[in-house]
Amino acid sequence: xxxxxxxxxxxxxxxxxxxxxxxxxxxxxxxxxxxxxxxxxxxxxxxxxxxxxxxxxxxxxxxxxxxxxxxxxxxxxxxxxxxxxxxxxxxxxxxxxxxxxxxxxxxxxxxxxxxxxxxxxxxxxxxxxxxxxxxxxxxxxxxxxxxxxxxxxxxxxxxxxxxxxxxxxxxxxxxxxxxxxxxxxxxxxxxxxxxxxxxxxxxxxxxxxxxxxxxxxxxxxxxxxxxxxxxxxxxxxxxxxxxxxxxxxxxxxxxxxxxxxxxxxxxxxxxxxxxxxxxxxxxxxxxxxxxxxxxxxxxxxxxxxxxxxxxxxxxxxxxxxxxxxxxxxxxxxxxxxxxxxxxxxxxxxxxxxxxxxxxxxxxxxxxxxxxxxxxxxxxxxxxxxxxxxxxxxxxxxxxxxxxxxxxxxxxxxxxxx
Length: 417
Fold this sequence. Notes:
Layout: H1 5-32, E1 35-36, H2 50-55, E2 67-69, E3 77-82, H3 96-99, E4 112-130, E5 133-150, H4 155-159, E6 169-170, E7 174-193, E8 196-222, E9 228-240, E10 245-247, E11 253-256, H5 261-266, E12 271-285, E13 288-302, E14 306-318, H6 322-326, H7 337-342, H8 348-352, E15 355-358, E16 361-364, E17 368-378, E18 381-390, E19 396-407, E20 410-416
Parallel strand pairs: 1-20
Antiparallel strand pairs: 2-4, 3-4, 4-5, 5-7, 6-8, 7-8, 8-9, 8-12, 9-14, 10-11, 12-13, 13-16, 13-17, 14-15, 17-18, 18-19, 19-20
């Protein structure tokens, strides 16, 4: 097809005008509509926000508006929780008198560190008015992980031993879990009476990936002979991935072949599940309300590409100066301890590669309980107190106070957890 210079110039003008209309439309939206910051810790102050409505099925708009959030424009919510200071994971921020303690890496004590990450992103959200309430539908991608470990035990895998003299390393029991799944929710919200709103939602779940470590314990210590090192690893676990898991002739895991990993992850619908959310919002009076929400009650049947892991092996490695291998320093032979574990060769195969047995399993997702109290002090100023409990192997609780302040077409949020 041939395009004349005049036709090309006309095309350029049309394209510029379309761009200007889009920018002008965005400006009008910002000037004449309420813009809300979508912060996960303060969602319970925002009844008409669709992120908050996904979290609490008893929230709804009070008008007949239709809500449609398109893929790619729906934002995401990220939660990061822990009881361990970030400083404790950086050797450069720890003084030598601390890292040089003889038992710095000997983590058999009862003190536990906990870290948790929760990420979810709506792919599409639709809310339609129905008689005395609303119907809603959404697709949401979820990723959640947590790990508990004694003291500073996980430092070893990234940084090795410190100082130069090799010391015993005992990790103690390390427990961790990573879950990725797609969620399709269908909900109904109704006004029970003038002071009570209830919502319930059923969910179809599709497990994309799962990994679980139960009581994994790593030990590295000198044997009786100074030129010998005793190594051991034990623990059990579960694994489900949409990629081939390659094993050796003895059934030990060699690697996970994750070619085209994003495409295979996003298109994995082989592991079905069911879930339910429920919420109640009680309007005590015109200026205060109490909300109770139970969410993520459900389970997933991981049946394709699913495995049980087990390990309880030990070995004595000869003619090796362990300090040269795992210590931080200028030694050109230095290898990150995590690489040593993942790329173990020779007799270390049996120590650092678990036995794999293909077997389906059923896994619950992490239930959550939210309690929220809000006090409206003025039409533009609200206070809220929120209690969040996450039920996992080592459950944890978050208490937060939030403030919402409106100014013109903007709403500002702040809080402390």
